[in-house]
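Section 5.1 Outputs to date
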Amino acid sequence: MESPYKTVIFDLGGVLIDWSPEYVFLKEFRGNREKMDWFLNEICAWDWNANQDAGYPIVQATEDRVAMFPEYEKLIRMYYGRWNEMLGYTHEDTLEILRQLHSHPDYQVYALTNWSGELFPRALAKFDWLSWFEGIVVSGDEKMRKPFREIYELTLNRYSIDPKMAIFIDDSPKNVVGCEEVGITGLHFTGADKLRSDLIQLGISI
């Protein structure tokens, strides 16, 4: 039976691209994971980084944080100053799934990512396979981010995607819930093998 799905939308970080502040800060904290985790939860916190994913300027964000925690200035400036070191490798097993979908005549592939618009060009320079997507929506460029419905609606409207014919893949459960609220079928990514199985169950030929 032919699948009703014609569009597959990928998250990038955690699904296709490895990224982690740990690559910088675990060394700075001399292997002390407890201290590193405290710093990343309390000083350069995840919700602070999410603001930059929604378009807040990196320079201003850094100065804001230094003003709040001047005793951690050196470490705070490392967060974006050494950001390239946090950008890791391609998840090759997921990339193979993308490759098959990209080469299949029945499917179109897009990306929807929470990512600073200032930093995303570095990913474009590093990962040439990003050119396989029909289009990429970068939250920082749009001044909105997942899991809020506006960015899913923007993606659907920009590329004339029928939500009933679309699948969205993300490693964050809340982002999957967000896509489902606008009628897209969501898949929570936990690994390439499970993703392949989930796609096949939905009738996708890979």
